[in-house]
Amino acid sequence: MATQDISSLGDIKLLVNTFYAKVQEDDLIGPIFNERMLGRWPEHLEKMYRFWQTILLEEHTYSGSPFPPHKQLPVNQTHFDRWMEIFTATVDFLFVGKLADEAKVRAANMAYMFNYKIEYFRNAENI
């Protein structure tokens, strides 16, 4: 059972590594990630460390726009629901506290926004 909050880059790395290890093995979203990340997992994980470090620890190490690389993914609400299920379970298993809760809120907001934008662009292209 988790007893501490997210408080360091080491905690961020533990969260990101544990989460993406589960993602890679997942029957629904694993194939999508593994196909896109082929040979680029270390680079992606480094980017995710910086992203979450910036959001949760307010140490500004990430710059960029997270949405464009995801725009053309073959995903829908079911995929985002599974992503959130894995993310939430990972956070809850590893951590407890204010930043752990913030991570789950931020992830849910991103999942909602990404799904909304992907659907928007997909529908706009079909007009």
Runs in which pLDDT lies below 50 for 5 or more consecutive residues are none
CATH class: Mainly Alpha
| SS-derived structural category | mainly alpha
Please, what is the average pLDDT? 91
Biggest β-sheet: count, sense, barrel? none
CATH superfamily heading = Globins
CATH architecture name: Orthogonal Bundle
Computed CA radius of gyration, to the nearest angstrom: 15 Å
Strand content: under 5%
Number of helices: 5
Shape: globular
Would you mind describing this structure in some detail?
The model has no long low-confidence stretch (mean pLDDT 91). The chain has 127 residues and is an all-alpha fold. It is globular. It has a single domain (9-125), classed as Globins (Globin-like, Orthogonal Bundle), CATH 1.10.490.10. It has five helices and no strands. Pfam families: Bac_globin (PF01152). One of its GO terms (molecular function) is oxygen binding.
